[in-house]
């Protein structure tokens, strides 16, 4: 299931949809068009699937949940009371646009949730995240929707335990918890092990880690920093048959795993940790569900910390998946059983005893967790928290427990403090007088407030009043530690699964493609590339009228695949071709037109961050700049954002230069050689815009604005049209972090005609074409280095064929 709902399906869900007559105009390009959304319906939609096929297919009647059985409990299991509920994914979609969700509880009360963000997965699962209006700012609602399951945690305004959404046997339940009957299954069990030879490495590693202390403020990061290869921990997950059965099969298991990962990522967001967990592969493994987690970790790793352990055949596919999919860490997930599992999870404590984490720790990137709850023989319900996965993952990144619960055997039957990677890599737990709360890495006591945050003194949002520091400087600061270790753990394996969208990626495989147009016959083709190798090609469309020009590509329907924006150079009409590989979709059609040809498309990018590309216009007569925010083929707003009357200033390209996730605008003055970055945030010009390094010689031309070093910020690639020199500016906001002369091609016939990520490594590459011979060359980059795998691809001698969609 990898389906996304387009604009028409959204209207079906929320308002009704009808097919119109085929658009007149460009012959063969047109198809049946969806009507535009009416009123204030969402301008774009998160990833989902056809609502009728979803378990959350209840109509939107103003609330997320309804209780068909008048809120009568279906079952009581220990501390948990299960209420069958109908759930409306359509209401969640609408809440993305309106900013508010209503969630009734079984007792008749309700909470209002303020939308903050949503996260889309390539497998069709998606997660809605928000907070209670007027409630505890430290408790967020996290709801993950899948085709056959929904899981969630929704805080209650009354301060009662969160309302849990669970899926069992094809039904969704709202589950209430009796706090007097539940006990955390983590207390009293070992949940971290020390890798082999850590003692031998500790003295040397401690010297390294102490030689370059990081200042307290150095780790502050912007919330929602863009996801890059440097801050993303790729995870391979294996799960047992019992876990799959408990969650309704493979589809439900996948939804549950996505929920657990997004709980972890929200903990990173809450803590200002610049990091992400990302599932790159999940599979069912043939392994027992009823031995101890410590035994399972030893067998998964192939070591118990002192000697080799035989790896069971059932776990071999999970270890193989780690290499195949480039997973930095591996997690085995099992249905919780007490007392058999002996706790909720266990992981290796990399960096133990203040040892520097290095690539040598990659063999210890394994963890085991239990999920769910089980009844103890004492009448109590033992449970594993939703934060268990990120808790154990943080051990792999050098984080220890709170000091009271971080102990190791010492001499003469004593105990000593068990350090993590740094002297401050501890969780935080306070007494009743000091706030009575604990953070993710701490072991809380009964009655304490649990905060989904890693210890950090830089946040003062903890405690019942949300006004206490969440850590202690240089003592309890897991967030600071994680910001230092995540970039290292993220290199345990090279990235295999591409991050995010690649430019001009028409089939959604994470690699850029090449869109060709023949300026004589009007035939259009797409090449698929894997590095320099052409893996396929296909005829897309023929448009003989040469007045129709391919202006740009962009994702206008939020399906993860590039579409094509056309404009008629005579009439000014616009047309968007929605693409799926080589196929032009029936949702393609005309867009509101601008007959005044003084208005030119200056940029196509997702300026408002809603998942669909927008169109930026500049008037070449008066310098006005107007942004059309788009949904499918429909402009949802037209906003004048700027005016530059001095027409020697030209918009070169969009690019995210400050790493805030929003495209900015790069301007160049063709008279003076000045360059300027206009910071954007949605439809507004943001503070901090300014001039960057001046390049007076006009033979230096900007030919690509892409992220060449995968740091989440776009860079600027220059070519000298006279000398053939090529220079790359690695950007950091308005500063040129590094200037490198990367290549020299004196033959003027060689032109850079496109750029993108052709090998799917998350770094920009270049596509060269010889305008004399028709040779084509793919130049692959890693930062400022040209890779040896660069090379010639298929030659196209006929110069009538031109590369478009740049």
TrEMBL record:
InterPro entries linked to this entry: FG-GAP, Integrin_alpha_N, MetalloPept_cat_dom_sf
Superkingdom of the organism of origin: Bacteria
Entry keywords, A to Z: Signal
GO MF entries: metallopeptidase activity
Protein biosynthesis among keywords: no
Name of the protein in question: FG-GAP repeat protein
Species this protein is from: Pseudoxanthomonas mexicana
């Amino acid at each position: 299931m990898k389906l996304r709902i387009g604009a028409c399906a959204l209207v079906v869900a929320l308002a009704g949809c009808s097919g119109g007559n085929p658009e007149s105009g460009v012959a063969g390009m047109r198809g049946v068009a969806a009507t535009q959304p009416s009123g204030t319906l969402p301008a774009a939609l998160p990833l989902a699937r056809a609502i009728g096929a979803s378990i959350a297919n209840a109509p939107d009647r103003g609330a997320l949940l309804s209780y068909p059985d008048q809120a009568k409990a279906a079952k009581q299991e220990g501390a948990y009371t299960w209420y069958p509920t109908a759930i409306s994914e359509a209401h969640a979609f609408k809440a993305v646009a309106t900013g508010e969700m209503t969630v009734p509880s079984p007792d008749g009360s309700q909470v209002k949730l303020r939308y903050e963000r949503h996260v889309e997965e390539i497998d069709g699962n998606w997660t809605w995240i928000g907070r209670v209006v007027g409630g505890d700012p430290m408790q967020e609602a996290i709801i993950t929707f899948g085709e056959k399951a929904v899981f969630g945690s929704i805080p209650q305004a009354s301060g009662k335990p969160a309302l849990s959404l669970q899926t069992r046997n094809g039904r969704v339940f709202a589950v209430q918890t009796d706090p007097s009957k539940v006990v955390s299954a983590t207390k009293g069990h070992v949940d971290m092990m020390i890798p082999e030879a850590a003692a031998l490495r500790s003295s040397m590693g401690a010297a390294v880690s102490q030689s370059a202390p990081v200042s307290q403020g150095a780790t502050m990061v912007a919330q929602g920093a863009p996801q890059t290869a440097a801050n993303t921990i790729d995870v391979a997950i294996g799960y047992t048959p019992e876990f799959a059965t408990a969650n309704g099969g493979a589809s439900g298991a996948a939804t549950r795993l996505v929920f657990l990962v997004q709980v972890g990522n929200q903990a990173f967001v809450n803590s200002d940790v610049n990091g992400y967990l990302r599932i790159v592969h999940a599979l069912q493994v043939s392994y027992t569900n009823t031995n101890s987690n410590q035994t399972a970790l030893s067998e998964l790793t192939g070591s118990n910390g002192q000697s080799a352990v035989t790896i069971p055949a059932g776990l071999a596919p999970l270890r193989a998946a780690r290499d195949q999919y480039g997973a930095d860490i591996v997690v085995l997930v099992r249905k919780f059983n007490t007392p058999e599992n002996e706790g909720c999870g266990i992981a290796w404590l990399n960096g133990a005893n203040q040892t520097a984490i290095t690539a040598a720790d990659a063999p210890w990137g394994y963890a085991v967790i239990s999920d769910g709850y089980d009844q103890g023989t004492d009448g109590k319900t033992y449970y594993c928290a939703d934060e268990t996965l990120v808790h154990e993952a943080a051990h792999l990144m050098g984080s220890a427990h709170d000091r009271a619960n971080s102990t190791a055997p010492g001499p003469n039957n004593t105990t000593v403090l068990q350090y993590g990677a740094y002297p401050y890599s501890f969780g935080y737990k306070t007494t009743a007088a000091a706030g009575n709360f604990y953070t993710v890495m701490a072991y809380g006591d009964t009655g304490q407030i649990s905060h989904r945050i890693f210890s950090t003194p830089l946040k003062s949002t903890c405690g019942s009043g949300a006004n206490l520091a969440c850590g202690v400087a240089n003592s309890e600061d897991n967030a600071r530690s994680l910001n230092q270790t995540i970039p290292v753990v993220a290199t345990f394996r090279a990235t295999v699964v591409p991050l995010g969208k690649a430019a001009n990626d028409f089939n959604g495989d994470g690699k850029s493609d090449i869109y060709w147009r023949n300026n004589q016959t009007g035939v259009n083709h797409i090449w698929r590339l894997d590095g320099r190798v052409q893996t396929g090609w296909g005829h897309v469309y023929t448009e003989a009228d040469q007045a129709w020009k391919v202006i740009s590509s962009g994702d206008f329907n939020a399906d993860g695949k590039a579409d094509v924006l056309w404009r008629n150079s005579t009439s000014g009409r616009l047309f968007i071709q929605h693409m799926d590989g080589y196929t032009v979709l029936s949702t393609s059609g005309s867009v509101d037109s601008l007959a005044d040809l003084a208005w030119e498309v200056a940029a196509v990018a997702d300026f408002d961050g809603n998942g669909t590309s927008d169109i930026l216009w500049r008037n070449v007569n008066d310098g006005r700049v107007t942004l059309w925010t788009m949904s499918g083929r429909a402009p949802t707003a037209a906003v004048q954002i700027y005016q530059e009357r001095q027409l020697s200033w030209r918009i070169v390209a969009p690019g995210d230069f400050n790493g805030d996730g929003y495209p900015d605008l790069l301007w160049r003055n063709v008279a003076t050689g000045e360059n300027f970055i206009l910071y954007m945030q949605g439809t507004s010009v943001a503070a901090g815009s300014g001039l960057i390094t001046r390049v007076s010689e006009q033979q230096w031309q900007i030919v690509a604005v892409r992220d060449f070093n995968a740091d989440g910020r776009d860079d600027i690639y220059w070519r000298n049209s006279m000398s053939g020199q090529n220079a790359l500016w690695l950007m950091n906001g308005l500063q040129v972090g590094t200037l490198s002369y990367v290549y020299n091609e004196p033959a003027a016939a060689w032109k850079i005609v496109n750029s993108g990520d052709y090998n799917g490594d998350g770094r920009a590459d270049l596509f060269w074409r010889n305008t004399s011979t028709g040779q084509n060359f793919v130049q692959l980059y890693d930062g400022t280095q040209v890779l040896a795998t660069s090379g010639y691809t298929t030659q196209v001698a006929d110069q009538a064929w031109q590369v478009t969609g740049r």
